[in-house]
Fold this sequence. Notes:
This protein is mainly alpha-helical. Helix content is about 75%, strand content about 0%. The chain has 16 helices and no strands. Helix 3 packs across helix 15, helix 5 crosses helix 6 and helix 9 (about 165-190) packs antiparallel against helix 14.
Amino acid sequence: MNTTRSQPVVFRNSAIRPGPVGLLSEGIRESWARRRLIRYLVQADLKKTGSDTLLGNVWWILDPLLQMVVYVVLITVIFARTQPDYPLFVFAAILPWKWFNSSVNDAISSVVGQERLIKQLQFPKIVLPLAATFAAVIHFVFGMIPLAALLVLFFSDRISPYVVLLLPIAAVQLTFTIAVALVVSALNVFVRDVGNISRHLLRLWFYLSPGLYALERLDESAIAREAPILIQIIKLNPFAILFEAYRAVIYGSADRGPFPPDWLSLTGLLAVSLVLVLLAIAFFKRLEPQFAKVL
């Protein structure tokens, strides 16, 4: 009798440690095999989110609108910066950023938050950050409601067929988000400060991304003259690419309506994100056998 086959997966992994390719293959296979479990966890997360507050999932409609109002007052009133149709301009960045921010924060606590379940049951832990990430996709869909309202009620001149291109842009962002979610969820098991650090890093990341300002303004700034390399680094920021893509199909530019995104930049980001996802799966599976011991 082959005792290795009869033992739980966690013990086999500790005895025979597969290489990166084996870990990657195992992670993909387990994720696909447990897709129904992921769907159940997503539904459970949505129900919990909806019942935790008085307004429930309606906050996913109100919150980006309230953030938009804050930034509009800050930029156009306090700093007196002018940008045509600025509420729509900034909302095109707030919505995808809120999606990414909530995905990362939910993923950070996705594993440690299921401590009892992990100690009692044997199942692939990779489904936990994946479920948290996919649940945030539904929240992003809720955010399409205020976006549609803004376009129809206040900015009808910017409505165009290019809005359907939000789907491939969102797919690129989802791919990148999955990679980040897997890494931070695994790291947080061993370093519980990840959640505290991430809040500050994410805030800094947003301000370094062209969310509140147009990317072309950086080329006209003093930074471009004094530190041109810094401008190039900012332009390589994944959310510089994503914000510009969202803004292209929703807002367009100051002097014209929406237009297609930069497909070359999006394709490059997608290729990099796919590589990062593969590395993140292998990284997660390498650390996974230690989760139960640490928790």
